[in-house]
Design brief:
- The chain has 71 residues and is of the alpha+beta class.
- The chain has a single domain, classed as Double Stranded RNA Binding Domain (2-Layer Sandwich).
- The protein has 1 helix and 3 strands, in the order βββα.
- The longest helix has 21 residues.
- InterPro entries: HicB-like (IPR031807), TA_system_antitoxin (IPR051404), TTHA1013/TTHA0281-like (IPR035069).
- It comes from Aerosakkonema funiforme FACHB-1375.
Length: 71
């Protein structure tokens, strides 16, 4: 099991997500929950395609953490 950092962005009327460690692995959805489900599927398909093509699967290299500050 691998854990990849996913970046979620609000795009006005929907959400988008991408995985920096997996170039081109992106997805969208109407809600944050839908987008999370969609990007999980996209990651799985991305990795399946790499395996089928005999390509190496990138190791997760990023860490993320929310930092609270007074604003």
């Amino acid at each position: 099991m691998k854990e990849y950092v996913v970046i979620f962005e609000c795009a006005g009327t929907n959400y988008s997500a991408y995985v920096p460690d997996l170039p081109g692995c992106i997805s969208t959805g109407k809600t944050l929950a839908e987008t999370e489900n969609n990007i999980k599927e996209a990651i799985e398909l991305y990795i399946d395609t790499l395996r089928e093509d005999g390509q190496p699967i990138p190791e997760p290299s990023l860490k993320a953490k929310a930092i609270s500050v007074a604003a």
